[in-house]
Every structure is written in C-alpha cells, then in structure tokens.
Amino acid sequence: MSMGAALSSSRGVHTSRRTHDVPQPSAAGTSAAAAQGPAGQSMDAQEVAKFEAMASEWWDPDGPNGALHTMNPLRTQFARDAICLAHGREARTVQPLRDLSVLDVGCGGGLFSEALARLGADVTGVDTSATAISVAATHAQADPAVASRTHYQNATAEQLQQQGAHFDAVVASEVIEHVSNVPEFCASLVALTRPGGSIVVSTINRTNRSYAVAIVGAEQIMGLLPKGTHQWERFITPEELQEHIERAGAERIGDSGMVMNPFTGHWTFSADKAVNYIMSFRKPAEQQRNP
Ligand SMILES: C[S@@+](CC[C@H](N)C(=O)[O-])C[C@H]1O[C@@H](n2cnc3c(N)ncnc32)[C@H](O)[C@@H]1O
Ligand SMILES: [Mg+2]
Questions:
Q1: Is the confidence at residue 252, as pLDDT, over 50?
Q2: What is the pLDDT of residues 78-132, one digit of tens each?
Q3: Topology of the domain covering 3-282
Q4: Which residues line the pocket of ligand 1, CB cutoff 6 A?
Q5: Quick one: which atom of ligand 1 is closest to the CA of 132?
Q6: Would you call 197 exposed, middle or buried from its count of C-beta atoms within 10 A (0-12, 13-18, 19+)?
Q7: What confidence tens digit (pLDDT) does each residue in 205-220 have?
Q8: Which residue out of 128, 134, 235 has the highest number of ligand 1 atoms within 8 Å of its CB and is therefore the one to mutate?
Q9: CA of 215 relative to ligand 2 center, distance in Å
Q10: Which pTM does this prediction carry?
Q11: Which ligand lies nearest to the CA atom of residue 228 in the structure?
Q12: Of the N and C termini of the chain, which has fewer Cβ atoms inside 10 Å?
C-alpha cells in the first residue's frame, strides 16, 4: 500500500467527544510499507522509513527515543506556558489546558501528546508513520483519562488542513528537521491554528556546535540516537523558523534554548540556542470588521 493510500484509508481509533473541528476522524494504520509514495507535501519517504524502523521502541526510556523522554517535562512546561499566555489561562493550575484542542504534528508514539492531555488538553496526534500511530493509540489505553483526551491519525498536517480542521494550539516537536518542505509545513501549522491560538515548535539549530553535539556526540560517540537519524543540512536556525512562521501569518511570542546534560540526561532552559531550542508563536485574533 502506498503512503497516500495508508493515510487516506485510515479509520477512527477514538470516538470520544472532540473539542476541535476535524470533519473526518481517521486512524492508526500498521503497515511499514506505508513509507512509499506521495502524500502531504512535507512528507519525506526516507524519513518516514527511518521512524517506522524504530517505532516499536517509542516508550522505552533507554531506547533510541530516550532523549525525547528526558526532554518531555521541559518542552511540556514551555508549551503549557505559551498556550496559557495566548489563551489568558493561569498556567499553575491542575489542568491549565482543560478543554483546549491541541494538534501534535509528528506525534510519534505520543510522548508529548500524552503529557499535554494530562494537562487537560483534547489532543489530536498525527504522524506519517502508521506504526507510530498504532503504538500511540495503544499506549493511551493504559490511562482512561489520557485515552479519552487523545485521538491519533495516520496523516500529515497538510491533509488535516485540506479537511478544514482548526485547533486552539498546534505543536510540532523535533519534526521540522525531518520534513521535505519546511515553508509548506510552517504554513500548514499556522493554517491549522485558530485566530488567537498558539504554535509551539522545537527543533535543532544549524551551527558548528549542533554538528559536534547532535551528530558526532549523540549519534557517533554516545550512541544516544541511531546513526543517520539527523542530517545536519536539514537543521533550521531560529531566525529561519521565525521567518517561515511569520510569513505564514503568526508572530513570535518567545523562545528558549534547551540544554541536556549528557551524563544525567537532565534538560534545562538556557539562553544558549546553539543546539536544541523551542519557540512559541501566536496567530493574531481576527480583526473586528466595521459595520
Ligand atoms: C523525532 S520524532 C518526534 C516525535 C514526537 N514529536 C516527540 O517528540 O516525541 C519525528 C516524528 O515526525 C514524524 N514525521 C516526519 N515527517 C513528518 C511529516 N511530514 N508529517 C508528520 N509527521 C512527520 C516521524 O514519523 C516521527 O514520528
Ligand atoms: Mg529530530
């Protein structure tokens, strides 16, 4: 089956009430063969194949996605604060994102989606990897509260956009460096955000240090990631990311570097954005028309 077929033939895995407006629920596919063929413009078949190959290890904190596990609390805190700021919410409450719809683009096995659902958000996770979507949907079942607030689809952002979906917030964490068409991908993130809503993107900067840390250090020396996970040329600078998103119609709210101690695996916010960073944006509210 082609990726296009896999994406368009998916079925709903959750039927729980949605607070966002996705016209056609769809679902988890399972075929690794789904990595071929065209679909949304941002999809790169080679990148999809890479993630299909490691998909069964999403929830292993000692596996190839270990750095995403250790990064999760920090990026969740950043997203919580950015979304609360855009929506006039108090961040330090039990469920600050209660009933807000959040789209997690390139959700993988659902690590970030589940963390956001625990903050009360109604999360839709989409990914080009059918296996990752299947893993995410299965893992969510372990916690009924998470299961009721997560909805997974084997799809691209562009496909949701074509369906006319809109969300209060859109997040894409560690995905943009794997897409084939960065401007189109950014335009979709903004188009999928309701006016007044927020966008959070985390990724890796393109610097000499990111080559040393993310490619040589993490892949070749420490083995934290499988070799070939990243291509340095595809990394994107904060300035480029900001330009693409602003061109699509949202404005930057804030950003931060995120630095991992490679020996403890502990992540902290930092002014240093030379390697990992996270950035938030707000789509302006619609202007009132004069009568
Ligand atoms: C490094 S993983 C990050 C997963 C998740 N966001 C996290 O941080 O836990 C990148 C994910 O993006 C997905 N992906 C790559 N290109 C994509 C695209 N164009 N649209 C949607 N998902 C994509 C991959 O299948 C993979 O699951
Ligand atoms: Mg990456």
A1: yes
A2: 999 999 999 999 999 999 999 999 999 999 999 999 999 999 999 999 999 999 9
A3: Rossmann fold (3.40.50)
A4: 42-43, 47-48, 51, 68, 105-108, 111-112, 127-129, 132, 156-157, 173-175, 178-179
A5: 27
A6: buried
A7: 999 999 888 888 888 8
A8: 128
A9: 11
A10: 0.85
A11: 2
A12: C
